[in-house]
Amino acid sequence: MAQRILVVDDSPINIKAVALALEAIGYEILEATDGRMALEVAAETLPDMLILDVQMPEFDGYEVCRRLRRQPAFMTRPILMLSANNALHERVQGLEAGADDYMAKPFEAEELQARVKALLRRANPPPVITATAQGKMVAFFSLRGGVGLSSLSVNLAAGLNQIWGGGKVALADMVFTGGHSALMLNLPLRTSWSDLASTEPDHIDEEVVQQVMLNHACGLRVLPAAPRPDQNERITPAQVSRVMQVLRAKYDYTIIDAPHNFNETTLAALDAVDQIVLVLAPEIGSIVATTCALDVFDQLGYRSDKITLLLNATFERGAIARKDIETALRRPLGMIIPYASEFFTNALNRGAPPVLDMPTKPLGGLLEEWAFSFSTEEDTKRPVERPSPALQRVLQRLQQRRKGRA
C-alpha cells in the first residue's frame, strides 16, 4: 500500500507541483487548502507524513504543526515545512514548532523526493540485519551522472582483487536503469540481478547468489545489472538487503556501483555498506547535487565517518578549485582522482580497466595504491606469506616514497 502524504497549501498550483513530484515515485497525495482543513483531514486520514506551507488562512503552518505535535498520533510523524522565505529565523521557527525539516520554494523535484524519502525512512527504520561475517562493503554514489561511478567501482574491485588474491572480492552493479560493469570487464551478460526477482528474500542464499554472478578471468566475481530497466524493476528492497547480507558473509570486500537516486532499493544497499564514497566532479552542478546528498545522509542518520568525498577530475580545464569546493561543502575532500579521461574511455571501449591493463604505468599504479587504501586494517597488518605482484608493487612504491621523505 502506498504511503500517504498530506500536502497543505492555499495555492492549488503549489499543491499540484508537490503532488507531481511525489506521485511520480509512488506516494498517494491528500490535500488541504488551509490550516483548519489540514487539522480535520489529518485527524480523519492519519497520513504517514505532512508537508505544510507556512503562510495559510485560518492557521499558519507553524500553528498547525504545534497543534499536531500535541496529539499522540502525530508526535513522531514526519512534518516538512515549505516556505518562500528561507531566512534563518523562519527555519528556526519552523523547527521549534516541531517540524522535522524545512525547504524553500521553489524547489527541485529531485531534492523534495530525496528529503521526503529520508524523513519517512527515519520515522520507519528498516530492521537491522546481522551478518554472519564482516567483510567490508563500499558503495560509490552520486546524485549526478557522468562523474565516473562505474569506472571507479570497477577499478577498485579489480584492484583489491589483484592485491589480496582472487575470489575474495565481489562487485555488485545496482544501476538498474542499465549498468555497465559487465561491459567494462568484457563479460557476457548471461545472468544478472533480474534472475533473482522471482526468488523470495528468505530463499536467497549463497548458492542462489553465486549462480547469477559472473566470473572474470582475474578472479573477481560480478553481480551485474540487466541491460534494460524493465528487467530490473521487480527487484525489491528486501531482496537487495538479503543479497547484501549474503555478499558480506561470502567476500572480504564487496563494491557497490549505486544508481543516482534515493530509491528504496538504493537505500537498502546504502544502509548495508560500511563506507559510501560520494563522488563529484569539479563543477557547480555536481557540487549542488553533493550538497543535497549530504543533507539526505544526515537526515538518514548516517555517521559522518561513513561518508568519504571523492573528487574525480572528469575534464581537463575550467575546474573549480579544491579549496572552493571544500568551502562550499563545508567538508574536506578525502580522495582525488586526477584527469585521465582518455585512458578511461579507451578502457571502456576495450573492456580492460586500467588497474588490470596497465598496472606498471602511472595511472595503473595510482589506481593500485588507491585500491590498497580501502584495505581493512586486518589485511594491511597481517603477514602475507606469498604477496601478490600487485601487493609487492604497492608496498615497494610506498617504501620508496618513505625513503624519499627521510
From TrEMBL:
Secretion signal, residue range per the UniProt entry: none
One GO CC term on file: cytosol
The keyword DNA-binding belongs to this UniProt entry's keyword annotation: yes
GO molecular function: phosphorelay response regulator activity; transcription cis-regulatory region binding
Record-linked Pfam families: AAA_31 (PF13614), Response_reg (PF00072)
Keyword Transcription attributed: yes
Domain of life from the UniProt record: Bacteria
SUPFAM superfamilies documented for this protein: CheY-like (SSF52172), P-loop containing nucleoside triphosphate hydrolases (SSF52540)
Swiss-Prot/TrEMBL keywords: DNA-binding, Phosphoprotein, Transcription, Transcription regulation, Two-component regulatory system
GO biological process: regulation of DNA-templated transcription
Record region (Disordered): 377-406
InterPro entries reported in the protein's UniProt record: AAA_dom (IPR025669), CheY-like_superfamily (IPR011006), P-loop_NTPase (IPR027417), Sig_transdc_resp-reg_receiver (IPR001789), WalR-like (IPR039420)
PTM sites of type 4-aspartylphosphate: 53
Domain Response regulatory, residue spans: 4-120
Protein name: Response regulator receiver
Lineage, broadest ranks: Bacteria, Bacillati, Chloroflexota, Chloroflexia, Chloroflexales
